[in-house]
Amino acid sequence: MKLIWAGVLLLLVLIAPELAQHSPTEPVAPPYSPPGTGGLLGTDYLGRDVVSRLLHGGRPMVLTSLLAALAGSGLGALAGLSVAFGRHWVETVVMRPLDALAAVPPILLLLLVLTALPNRVGVVLAVALASVPLAARVARAAAEQVMGRAHIEAAVARGEGWGWLVGREVLPLVRGTLLADLGVRFVMAVYLVAAAGFLGLSTSDSDWGLLVVEALPGAALQPIALLAPVLGIALLAVTANLWTDRRAACS
Question: Bigger pLDDT: 249 or 95?
Answer without folding.
Answer: 95
